[in-house]
Amino acid sequence: MERHCVFVTIFVLILHLVQAQNQTGFISVDCGLSPPESPYNAPQTGLTYTSDTGLINTGKTGRIAKDFEPFVDKPALTMRYFPDGIRNCYNLNVTRDTNYLIKATFVYGNYDGLNVDPNFDLYLGPNLWTTVSSNDTTEEIIHVTKFNSLQICLVKTGISIPFINVLEVRPLKKNVYATQSGSLKYLFRMYVSNSSRRIRFPDDVYDRKWYPIFQNSWTQVTTNLNVNISTIYELPQSVMSTAATPLNANATLNITWTIEPPTTPFYSYIHFAELQSLRANDTREFNVTLNGEYTIGPYSPKPLKTETIQDLSPEQCNGGACILQLVETLKSTLPPLLNAIEAFTVIDFPQMETNEDDVTGINDVQNTYGLNRISWQGDPCVPKQYSWDGLNCNNSDISIPPIIISLDLSSSGLNGVITQGIQNLTHLQYLDLSDNNLTGDIPKFLADIQSLLVINLSGNNLTGSVPLSLLQKKGLKLNVEGNPHLLCTDGLCVNKGDGHKKKSIIAPVVASIASIAILIGALVLFFVLKKKTQSKGPPAAYVQASNGRSRRSAEPAIVTKNKRFTYSEVMQMTNNFQRVLGKGGFGIVYHGLVNGTEQVAIKILSHSSSQGYKQFKAEVELLLRVHHKNLVGLVGYCDEGENLALIYEYMANGDLKEHMSGTRNHFILNWGTRLKIVVESAQGLEYLHNGCKPLMVHRDIKTTNILLNEQFDAKLADFGLSRSFPIEGETHVSTAVAGTPGYLDPEYYRTNWLTEKSDVYSFGVVLLEIITNQPVIDPRREKPHIAEWVGEVLTKGDIKNIMDPSLNGDYDSTSVWKAVELAMCCLNPSSARRPNMSQVVIELNECLTSENSRGGAIRDMDSEGSIEVSLTFGTEVTPLAR
Ligand SMILES: *[C@@H]1O[C@H](CO)[C@@H](O)[C@H](O)[C@H]1NC(C)=O
Ligand SMILES: *[C@@H]1O[C@H](CO)[C@@H](O)[C@H](O)[C@H]1NC(C)=O
Ligand SMILES: *[C@@H]1O[C@H](CO)[C@@H](O)[C@H](O)[C@H]1NC(C)=O
Ligand SMILES: *[C@@H]1O[C@H](CO)[C@@H](O)[C@H](O)[C@H]1NC(C)=O
Ligand SMILES: *[C@@H]1O[C@H](CO)[C@@H](O)[C@H](O)[C@H]1NC(C)=O
Ligand SMILES: *[C@@H]1O[C@H](CO)[C@@H](O)[C@H](O)[C@H]1NC(C)=O
Ligand SMILES: *[C@@H]1O[C@H](CO)[C@@H](O)[C@H](O)[C@H]1NC(C)=O
Ligand SMILES: *[C@@H]1O[C@H](CO)[C@@H](O)[C@H](O)[C@H]1NC(C)=O
Ligand SMILES: *[C@@H]1O[C@H](CO)[C@@H](O)[C@H](O)[C@H]1NC(C)=O
Ligand SMILES: *[C@@H]1O[C@H](CO)[C@@H](O)[C@H](O)[C@H]1NC(C)=O
């Protein structure tokens, strides 16, 4: 039986009066409109449009040619075009972390009399959204904002001059059109009707534009009755009250479309409501298939009530040709029916925006000095080819926001004092403000910018004296030449421009301060070493001195070798193998003590183990490199002839399975704790998949391999023994499998390959276990495998029937639903359709947030801030902060 990531969203009926449509939060910009005409209410929609002054400082205004006016809506009549500069950006005030529908309209209308089709790029912040190459088009995207501002940039790519006519931004409710990742680029939005009417605001509260679709082989169905439209999608009444069924009662209802490029993933949203009143002996029931593949069903639209079938994870169509079919089931007496359908392609925006503090700082510099440089628009650093001139940025690591490392504003006609904003440029290495008209004091905050290596303030009219803290700053080159009024206290100005010489002049003061500093430094260092804490990086002074890289490295400079132990040490640690903790496939695990106090778990590899010595060695080497707070740490190993042992940190609370089955104690893990455990396990697994090079496949994810320490922090275990390493460049593991039945990816049987998606499958099984607390395989069930069993029970009804009864209903049902859906996605038979672990981590965190926000007692074990320190050993400092 197939498993799917499509589900019917059924929302609790909340009777809410159809609100008078209001435009709260809408941004409706008529670009190029002259300010005296602003604002106005557009004729058909009643939307209030304003001019774009204040949103952009560049560009010229234009108007489409008279001949085109009758065919164009009022807001699109005028435009702003950009003959100057490469990138020109609108800056809109929005609310961060909000889902927005963003529309940009481009109508050329021969405004310049040149009659050439446009061709330029449209960016959302630093990321390419689309290329505009049609003379009349609206681009639409559903996007979650990261900041309180949104930049929409037009970028010249050839000779074509970019222009824009209308910009519209509509806030959406939070979970509407949710994706696993990425934003949604409009593909189509159609309602089934033989009319030619387009529907948008005020019918559609979100101002979505619905186009009618109809085929000759269909017959129209409409109703005059009210259709219940109370779902989060808030579909217009006029969209839901029409539908069609195939004329030929036996036929399928087909919708086809193509996707370019063919492999682009997409999401579809299919909206249904039964509009006919059915007789008692009538049934309308159908399956939904995509390219012949079953996705959901049998499904019956609800009488006069809206339901949406949506993809939970993105779909793909072979060759980019999609055919969606509604296929009548045998039981059905009526043909399938469709009301409306939308589809979007997924668009990823990988480029991060520049560090927010840096943006704040540089914006302040720009505003203070009134800098009107044409390139100073949009994101300061990225994309690199459009970065602001005078700036240099570091964006070599794409996983962190770019940072500004150099600012050159020499000879830029700056007036006034050195602005405070510069102190927000906390990664600056090079600052050149020379040859301006700057006045006032040299601010002390410059000394607080740790990373600064060069400051050039020469050729200004600065006054006061140079702050001592600046002079003392190690490794800093300071140039203050040519400031005639700068005070020469302490004989300072004798050696203008050379920080080192200056220091020698004020040596007595500095020396005493320096010696105190050294003493303090030494003390600090002493305590750091003494405590052996998980340092987040070397002390600040050290960072600053190192070749100017100010981003603190997460990795300790020296990875100390973990200890290698002799066999007699192992015997001593285990007190002659006295206390057995457990037996695994590869050997027995004993309790042990290192240094007589620190508890460890020692696995002695049995001679009969299929693991060869070579593999053992390779694994030890790899395990010593792998550090993550959600992976059981390797304390050491023993490699002495026949005697091979692995020494792990001790996990006081055993494994998850014991807790689920109640064999450990009679204490029931509550839903929040279960979620916390799987979130942490998922993080560990995500690290293996994404944080390790080469990628590691665990290959044996199961509840017995999720261990819990004293604080109930979850850590994955056994990741050393059950996987092998793919050669660089290979993406899968094809060696003999050591997985566990029930957890093993069904695709493996077909392909003989295990990928990281196989771990995702096994993880899905673990999720179902914490939800249901049922055995993974139970021959007494009609569907022995847990995934099939859950799938079957769910289609029949209530989620309560699968929930672990010992939870006594004490959980947030949104969070449970989400977890179930996620589990089913992970269990998709097709590995390509499973989410990756990063997505799983995000989704599970949302489940946890949802559960935690439910209020009520949060158990001790859930408390944040539990000790992250794994059992460290010797001089080892382990986990990589991730
Ligand atoms: C518009 O709707 C918002 C919330 O949707 C509400 O807070 C506001 O009061 C409404 N304004 C008017 C004028 O109805
Ligand atoms: C955007 O917000 C800033 C401050 O938050 C404000 O100064 C500015 O006027 C706003 N712009 C518009 C167009 O509302
Ligand atoms: C766009 O181009 C087509 C054909 O090239 C032309 O018929 C149409 O009038 C143009 N529309 C606009 C708004 O320029
Ligand atoms: C529909 O199918 C039934 C049985 O399969 C058949 O008897 C009937 O002729 C079909 N009707 C049409 C219109 O094709
Ligand atoms: C729908 O698609 C199926 C399969 O491709 C085809 O047999 C059928 O004729 C199509 N129906 C219509 C009405 O186009
Ligand atoms: C359904 O019942 C109606 C009367 O209520 C009858 O006329 C019709 O033939 C029945 N249809 C079927 C398929 O049994
Ligand atoms: C509809 O789907 C169900 C469940 O997968 C399947 O048993 C049935 O055969 C399908 N019916 C049709 C007509 O495809
Ligand atoms: C600085 O200001 C003076 C007078 O205010 C002016 O003459 C001079 O040109 C300015 N210099 C620069 C570099 O702007
Ligand atoms: C800029 O830096 C100052 C001093 O560090 C800080 O107080 C202020 O909050 C920063 N501003 C912003 C917007 O981050
Ligand atoms: C420099 O500043 C002083 C006062 O601070 C002023 O008298 C003088 O005119 C300024 N020089 C220039 C060139 O602006």
Automatic annotation (TrEMBL):
Span of the signal peptide: 1-20
**Residues covered by the Protein kinase domain:** 575-848
Q: Is ATP-binding there in the keyword field?
A: yes
According to the UniProt record, one GO cellular component term is: membrane
Where does this one sit in the cell?
A: Membrane
Q: Specify the protein's topology with respect to the membrane.
A: Single-pass membrane protein
Question: Which EC number(s) are documented for this chain?
Answer: 2.7.11.1
Q: Which SMART domains match?
A: S_TKc
Record keywords: Nucleotide-binding included? Answer: yes
Segments passing through the bilayer = none
Q: What class of enzyme is it?
A: transferase
**Reaction catalysed by this chain?**
L-threonyl-[protein] + ATP = O-phospho-L-threonyl-[protein] + ADP + H(+); L-seryl-[protein] + ATP = O-phospho-L-seryl-[protein] + ADP + H(+)
**InterPro entries to which the protein is assigned, alphabetical:** Kinase-like_dom_sf, Leu-rich_rpt, LRR_dom_sf, Malectin-like_Carb-bd_dom, Prot_kinase_dom, Protein_kinase_ATP_BS, Ser-Thr/Tyr_kinase_cat_dom, Ser/Thr_kinase_AS
Predominant location: membrane
Q: Give the PANTHER family listed for this entry.
A: LEUCINE-RICH REPEAT PROTEIN KINASE FAMILY PROTEIN, OS07G0107800 PROTEIN-RELATED
The name on file for this protein is: non-specific serine/threonine protein kinase
